[in-house]
From TrEMBL:
Residues 2-118 form the RCK N-terminal domain. GO terms for molecular function: potassium ion transmembrane transporter activity. InterPro entries: K_uptake_TrkA, NAD(P)-bd_dom_sf, RCK_C, RCK_C_sf, RCK_N, Trk_Ktr_HKT_K-transport. Keywords: Ion transport, NAD, Potassium, Potassium transport, Transport. It holds the Pfam family TrkA_N. Residues 134-219 form the RCK C-terminal domain. GO terms for cellular component: plasma membrane. The lineage of its organism: Bacteria, Pseudomonadati, Thermodesulfobacteriota, Thermodesulfobacteria, Thermodesulfobacteriales. This is Trk system potassium uptake protein TrkA.
């Protein structure tokens, strides 16, 4: 069966990647909001669509879970973060994402990207960097109203599963990852059955107002 790759973002990086894959016989679906970019690449790939991939319903409609790989080739941090988050929720098989720098790369990996590339940086240095470094900041700004926060597991969470805590409904936040204190091993997008333990740290994505309510629980 012919391999299928979806390329989201048809700028210089995305378009070159899409054309190269298509030339090698891969079925390529390209997506971008820019009509001119879509028009320019249409003759060179299997299909090109004008669409806003930051909308979850758009990603769902194109069947991202059926593609062998999905490439997020967008430089805009806000857009790439949302797209990777939605792709993981929609169970995309493999996510390759483009990052602008190491901070951007850490966020994308934390959200579940299987591979992150930084075109402007030497490949060897890029691969040598770890997913999370010991001096990671407690708060990392994303969008104007969104943050990633690192906090100790509140006492009321300990001994309960993520399903029981139902943090999305209660606080409107996403648990991106969990790790033991002083450990480099990270559980990315932990399952609903995960039981929170006393010595765990939570990496949480949400709006400032909702994170403030959650953070108050850990004080």
């Amino acid at each position: 069966m012919k391999r299928k790759v979806i390329v989201i973002g048809l700028g210089k990086f995305g378009s070159n990647l899409a054309k190269t894959l298509a030339a090698e016989g891969v079925e390529v679906l390209g997506i971008d909001k820019n009509e001119k970019l879509v028009e320019d690449i249409s003759p060179d790939i299997s299909e090109a669509l004008v669409a806003d991939a930051t909308r979850k319903e758009v990603l769902k409609s194109i069947g991202v879970e059926e593609a062998d790989q999905v490439v997020v080739a967008m430089s805009n941090l806000s857009a790439s973060v949302l797209i990777v988050l939605y792709l993981r929720e929609l169970k995309a098989r493999f996510i390759l994402a483009k990052a602008n720098d190491e901070d951007h790369a850490r966020i994308l990996r934390l959200l579940g990207a299987d591979r992150v590339v930084i075109p402007e940086q030497d490949a060897a240095l890029r691969e040598a960097r770890t997913l999370i470094t010991p001096n990671m900041v407690d708060f990392l700004p994303l969008l104007p109203d969104f943050l990633i926060a690192k906090l100790d597991a509140p006492d009321e969470f300990i001994g309960h599963s993520l399903k029981e805590l139902d943090l999305r409904r209660r606080y409107h936040v996403y648990i991106l990852a969990i790790r033991k204190k002083h450990s480099t091993k990270l559980i990315v997008l932990p399952p609903a059955e995960h039981i929170i333990e006393k010595d765990e740290e939570l990496f949480v994505l949400g709006k400032k107002e909702y994170l403030s309510k959650l953070l108050a629980q850990s004080e």
